[in-house]
Amino acid sequence: MAHVLVVTSGKGGVGKTTSTAALGAALAHDGDRVVVVDFDVGLRNLDLVLGAERRVVFDVISVINGVAKLSQALIRDKRLENLFLLPASQTRDKDALTEEGVAAVIAELRDRFDWIICDSPAGIERGATLAMRHADSAIIVTNPEVSSVRDSDRIIGLLDSKTVKAERGERVDKHLLITRYHPARAARGEMLSIDDVLEILLTPLLGIIPESEEVLRASNVGSPVTLNNPLSAPARAYFDAARRLRGEEIAMHVPNESKGLFGKLFGRKAA
Amino acid sequence: MSSLVCQRQSLRFRARSYMAFAITPRAPVVDWLADLDANLERSKGFFAGHPAVLDLSGVNLRAPAIAHLVAALEERNIRVLGIEGVDPATAEPGLPPVLRGGRGTPGLEAGERATAAVTGRLAPQRQSLASLLIEDPVRSGQSIVFTEGDVTVLGSVGSGAEIVAGGSIHVYGTLRGRAMAGVNGNARARIFCHRVEAELLAIDSYYKTADDIEDSLRRGPAQAWLEGSTLKISAMQ
């Protein structure tokens, strides 16, 4: 049964694309058929993070416009044979996305994949609303700081009103993914604590991804962090989150409670 | 209708809503006036002291005819304060202003009351206990506007969200957004919340922003009410 998942946040730069790539790779690594769809038309990034930028021929807009077939636009990952990318167009803008076109593409993808992960652009305009439009569930990516949390609150409101599921009177399942969490700064009160974020957003927690250089390093070499360094702290947090998405019960790892984890992190840096 | 809260408190514009009879003439107007006269004969002073709005959607009248009708009603002591159901272009300087967006009032339909008055028994005026219950959290960017009465929110009101109520506002979670109570000029409206971290509290267009709310009150249960022209906030035990 195909599952449409939107990765969204409202605010830019919080880690939507990184999380889409990392979770997509983690789900595909465990055997599911996964497609990640870039909705950031005009400012695409997902192809870079997946290292597929040199193989883009067609994109989601060409499929919507009937220029290419879906199978022509899908790019298979070089490392995982059941991970695919449907890239965004870089030369167009969000107005090229049409309601009917997006509906048709998502419907066709549902027949082929277990997971359809839609990487939303920042903002609450057309690109973002169409990315969430057909979602069965949503991952809200939040950094532990006030502006990101408020934007996430806004996005949750939109998920409850502007999606197809909401208009049918159903609910989009929502998962909160806290990224760029810095335990030491949270302990000093320079960041919101996990409890603060959860209290404001009242949304079940999917995972806490610690701030790590591994994430940047993986992006720079065009590889999801879950494939580039599967044993790193952020990669393991993403793997746990992916298993929770599948419905597995896994104890939540709050980075500041685990000195061992950070001992390992620092150990790796020194090496 | 909402109050317009100005930055400078010396100048305050306030919107208010009032109950008015909507009088709906039928064609031919001459016969309708005769019917009206017959009714007025039986219950004199029925319209005395009550403002009325003339709903012309059932007839097709030009400006001179409307002026004639308004004058005919004035003769019968019916003061027309506005007309509706006509193209605003037909309005002439001499005529009452054209109104739009009127809403029916359950329990106080002019027609029903007229019948009751004629038969001599006035149905007890039931004031509808209007209230709105919101069971979900109110998220940033959402705006709940309910000018008919109280609003109760079981969850929290997020930063950047707003609640506008004609009556009081009750928030059982944390109030982080804006709450505006008594917007129709109801100075007795209050705001209650389980935990106050509000961006703005307003009652009957008197307001306080987050900066004006004492730190000692923040993060605790609180209520706000109006004392004269001062918005008071106190902790609730």
Written overview of the protein:
The complex is a heterodimer of chains A (271) and B (237). With 271 residues, chain A is of the alpha/beta class. Helices cover 43% and strands 16% of the residues of chain A. Chain A has an 8-stranded mixed sheet with strand order 3-4-2-5-1-6-7-8, sandwiched between helices. The model of chain A is unreliable at 267-271 (pLDDT under 50). Chain B has 237 residues and is α/β, with parallel strands linked by helices. Chain B has 2 domains: 21-116, Alpha-Beta Plaits, CATH 3.30.70.260; 131-235, 3 Solenoid (Pectate Lyase C-like). Chain B contains 3 helices and 14 strands. In chain B, a hairpin with a 2-residue loop joins strand 11 (200-203) and strand 12 (206-209). The model of chain B is unreliable at 1-8 and 106-127 (pLDDT under 50). Classes of the chains: A alpha/beta (271), B alpha/beta (237). The A-B interface holds A 124, 146, 150-151, 153-154, 156-158, 160, 199-200, 202 and B 136-142, 155-156, 158-161, 174, 176.
Would you list the SSEs of chain B in sequence order as H and E? Answer: EHEHEHEEEEEEEEEEE
Unreliable sequence segments of chain A: 267-271
N-C termini distance of chain B? 34 Å
Mean pLDDT of chain A: 92
Give the helix tally of chain A: 14
Radius of gyration of chain B: 23 Å
Structural class of the helices, strands and pairings of chain A?
alpha/beta
The radius of gyration over CA of chain A amounts to: 18 Å
Across the major sheet of chain B, the strand order is: 4-6-8-10-13-14
Domain count of chain B, please report it: 2
Approximately what portion of the residues of chain A adopt beta-strand conformation?
Answer: 15-25%
Sequence of strands across the biggest β-sheet of chain A: 3-4-2-5-1-6-7-8
Helix content of chain A: 40-55%
* Outline type of chain A: globular
The profile of the biggest β sheet of chain A is:
8 strands, mixed
Q: Estimate the mean pLDDT confidence of chain B.
A: 80
